[in-house]
Amino acid sequence: MEKLDNIVMYSPKDVSKLLHLGNSKVLELFNSKDFPSIKIGRAFWVKSDCLEQFLSEKHVISKSNEDLF
Q1: What is the H or E stretch that residue 8 is in?
Q2: Within the chain, which residues score under 50 in pLDDT?
Q3: Are 30 and 45 in contact (CB under 8 A)?
Q4: What pLDDT sits at residue 4?
Q5: Which of 24, 30, 55, 64 would bridge 37 by S-S if both were Cys, CB 3.0 to 4.6 A apart?
Q6: How far apart are CA 6 and CA 17, in angstroms?
Q7: pLDDT for the residue 68
Q8: Rounded to whole angstroms, how far apart are CA atoms 46 and 3?
Q9: Strand, helix or coil at 16?
């Protein structure tokens, strides 16, 4: 997690820990069209508020919803 003033950004490693996902699933998530990630140089990032909104819109994430990731 990185902070820039009041902006909190999560790396794929942070998201992996937060959501208990493996590296391949996290990279798949960051590369999906509907996930609000940004790529700066070689690194992917997602703003904390964008991640919260994305998760709240998905409601329940389970094995039956794997197509979301």
Answers
A1: strand 7-10
A2: none
A3: no
A4: 74
A5: 30
A6: 22
A7: 54
A8: 12
A9: helix
Q: Which two tokens stand for residue 15?
A: 């998201």
Helices (H) and strands (E) in the chain, counts: 3, 4
Q: What is the pLDDT of residue 39?
A: 92
Residue 1 pLDDT = 83
pLDDT, residue 47, reads 95
For residue range 51-60, list pLDDT tens digits in order: 999 998 875 5
5: left (phi over 0), alpha (psi -120 to 50) or beta: left
Strand, helix or coil for residue 33:
coil
- CA–centroid distance for 2 within its chain: 14
What is the chain's Cα-based Rg? 12
Helix (H) or strand (E) holding 50: helix 48-58
